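Input (structure):
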């Protein structure tokens, strides 16, 4: 199967910046009370469904996977970048991390109680998002919870450098929460909440909760 160019670009870019990315964001949640609260709400919703397994899709170096584990969830991580997965396994040896793509998850139908995509859909082109959300729907059991975090707003830009000045080649897509909610609805989910967070001037994060 041919791999789309945007997937190759994303993998190569995050392999390149993996070490710097992990070092720069290692303790970022400690300074983000709103993000911690959103993740705690996700954990509560998963527990209300009887717990079960949770996938952190696009987990990077595993910091959010580990945080979910600390909240009592049976969480594992999946990421496109082998370098990111290597760091995740090194930093969190008690947890499970696998290389994989959100476009074709190597998971059984209905096997998950929760899916988190924490700022990992931001490089997925608009026309590919419905297929990704169809994968999320496939692997979630009925009642399963999905939380999407993303850059809110509109428009895209090409990111050519990041995380310590290393070269990258990825498009960063900003989307309004109502558009993301509409995509989830079209994929068969029931949307429960749309949120925005403005941690700094001209910086806006979007979060959408839904269930299957």
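Output (sequence):
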């Amino acid at each position: 199967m041919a791999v789309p160019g945007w997937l190759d670009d994303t993998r190569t870019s995050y392999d390149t910046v993996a070490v710097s990315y992990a070092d720069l964001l290692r303790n970022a949640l400690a300074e983000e009370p709103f993000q911690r609260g959103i993740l705690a709400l996700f954990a509560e919703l998963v527990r209300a469904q009887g717990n079960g397994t949770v996938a952190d899709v696009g987990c990077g170096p595993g910091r959010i996977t580990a945080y979910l584990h600390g909240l009592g969830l049976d969480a594992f991580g999946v990421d496109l970048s082998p370098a990111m997965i290597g760091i995740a396994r090194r930093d969190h040896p008690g947890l499970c991390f696998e290389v994989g793509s959100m476009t074709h998850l190597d998971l059984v139908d209905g096997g998950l109680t929760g899916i988190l995509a924490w700022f990992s859909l931001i490089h997925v082109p608009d026309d590919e998002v419905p297929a990704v959300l169809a994968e999320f729907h496939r692997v979630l059991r009925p009642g399963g919870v999905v939380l999407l975090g993303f850059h809110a707003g509109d428009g895209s830009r090409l990111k050519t450098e990041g995380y310590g000045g290393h070269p990258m080649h990825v498009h960063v897509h900003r989307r309004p929460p109502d558009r993301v909610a509409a995509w989830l609805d079209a994929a068969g989910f029931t949307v429960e909440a749309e949120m925005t967070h403005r941690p700094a001037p001209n910086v806006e994060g979007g979060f959408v909760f839904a269930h299957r």
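Notes: The domain at 1-25+50-122 is CATH 3.40.50.150 (Rossmann fold). Residues 134 and 154 are 23 Å apart (CA to CA).
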